[in-house]
Amino acid sequence: MELARRTIDAHTDAGPDEEGIHTVGAAVMAADYRMFAGVNLYHFTGGPCAELVALGAARAQGARQMRCIVAVGNHGRGVIGPCGRDRQVFVDHYPTMRVIVPTPAGLRSVLAADLMPLAQRWTPEAGMNGLDPSLYQDPEAAGPPIIRFNPRYLEAVRSGVKTKTTRFRDPAQLGPARLVFESDPEVVLPAEVTGIRHCMVSDLTDQDAQAEGLTTAAQLREVLQRHYPGLVGTDEVDVITFRIDHETGA
Fold first, then answer.
1. Are 119 and 91 in contact, with CB atoms under 8 Å apart?
2. What is the C-alpha to C-alpha distance for residues 246 and 191, in angstroms, rounded to an integer?
3. H helices within the chain, ranges in order?
4. Residue 13: predicted pLDDT
5. Degrees (nearest 5) of the Cα angle 82, 83, 88?
6. pLDDT value for 132
7. So what's the pLDDT on residue 250?
């Protein structure tokens, strides 16, 4: 909500109680916890709502699955619920995404699918069909936990060159896992997390770097800085060791 509020407050073109082209901001969180923002573009022919602009921005940066979304009005108007068109788009493309909406009892987070009772879902392949109840289950929670990777790491992981990943505020757990590479379409490799070490960024070793296909700890810290801007040496990270389950296959 704070990202949505900051975005529209910085970019609105209307004063308090004035009409304008840009009066609502939205923020969406992707499955990998990256956040993206957008503002509406009002037009009498049906300019896009802020939520759709934010979803487009997320896709443009490689995000494929979304966790939650919220829209906020300018000048302190607070959270605004999605319009009917937005709700249909959410159901069609992200039925398990959480949507923050205002209610008489305060703000509430609901599944996108629950915003459209008795809805039909449209897909490019099948057109309009009834909403499959199985879509109400969050794919992130169905089956082994997911660890997401940029697709550029796919071959290194497949070949065994990369057997570790270092994460900041992205917890994992020991045992079976799904390694998801956010290509189009996504690639999923069954795996097992065999070790998790908590340490500070400054304590990362050359051995950690080499298990990630790099050479030195300094190189690893540079890569982490690109993934997590603002990361400092005293920040705590998780060094996750994994192995691919070749018997199960992709």
1. yes
2. 8
3. 2-11, 50-60, 84-93, 154-159, 206-211, 217-227
4. 93
5. 90
6. 66
7. 47
| From 2, 51, 186, 236, active-site residue | 51
Q: How many C-beta neighbours within 10 Å does residue 179 have?
A: 24
Ranges of residues in the chain whose predicted pLDDT is under 70:
118-119, 131-143, 184, 247-250
Count of alpha carbons within 13 Å of 92, Cβ hemisphere only?
14
Residue 145: is the preceding peptide bond cis (ω within 30°)? no
The pTM of the full predicted model, rounded to 2 decimals, is 0.57
- Three-class DSSP category at 88: helix
CA distance 153 to 150: 6
Largest pairwise CA distance in the chain:
63
Q: What are the strands, taking DSSP E only, across the chain?
A: 24-30, 35-39, 66-73, 78-79, 98-103, 106-111, 120-123, 127-130, 146-149, 164-167, 175-181, 187-200, 236-244
**16 token code pair:** 């308090």
- Catalytic annotation present for 51: yes
**CB neighbour class for 192 (10 Å; exposed up to 12, middle 13-18, buried from 19):** middle
Q: What was the pLDDT predicted at 184? A: 67
